[in-house]
Amino acid sequence: MTIETDRNPLEWALIFDPQAEIERISTFIQTEVARRGARGVLTGLSGGLDSSVCAYLCARALPIEQVHVLMLPERDSDSKLHEQAHAVVRSLGLRTSEADMTSLMDWLGLYDDTPQEVARNRTLLERWMRGIRRLSGAPALFPWVQEYAYGQRRGLAAGALQRWMWRYAGQTQAFVLGKLRARMLALSLRAARQDCLLVCTTDRSEWSIGFYDPHGDGVGDLALLSHLFKTQIRALGRELGLPESIITQPSSGDLAAGLPNEEAIGMSYELLDHLLVGLSLGMSDEAIALHADASPRLAATVRSACALADARRGMPVRLEPLGRD
To answer: Lowest-confidence range among 50-64, 120-134, 142-156?
Structure first.
């Protein structure tokens, strides 16, 4: 047997059998629905890659009448994604409901500081993010912002920057978290009413660095993709027969102007996945950088983001139980 010694270990670790994984996930869905005595599953559908893959997986695992889909458009939703969501439903023959969230989000004040002309101006939003990244000098935007948001930066300069930045970042965080949590409230209530298990669509790439809200898109009864990296989910989508337009389009949280997640994270998913694989293999920052064609500083930044994400999953912070001396 010939052993390949020149294969990139990061690429090698991402190789898997999509068909076998589809069968494994299908069995998981069937087993959990039966174990919990649920009437089926409910998944939110935006028309993006992750939610579409979850819809296809559920439709493959269960009878159509046990798969429920809820679409939650609002003022800033991307019309192309919404059209793709309807195309997915039609192709699978699924039953779907749709609830416009605009009035609720307006009542919550989520639009107060972000006019529609700004929220729908993708060019402006991308330029703003790139400007912040240049000013920060950070190799990736999202991990840098998280370090300030959760008090990981120390010193007078860091404290002053955090207070100044929060005048703007606080508005953005309220805008993002408010939308994610309003959606999850609607999904959770509908799932409870229909006695269905709620599907969590967050993938391993986003889960690893904390690019999700534990009280929003991280909520659910079944996490179908949290063990798979984004590049693996694209392969899974092709095996399931998703339209190529969904597989290749930039992933987006559909929060404003269809802004791609890669702009907010600060790197491509392909690069992020390679860095995360290197961390999972126990490689040093220098070794990861060598195989991922990146800088050791970027590898260290992703390592820090993963550690902070682990800490966030332990929140809320608790006091030790009372004891006797």
So the answer is: 142-156
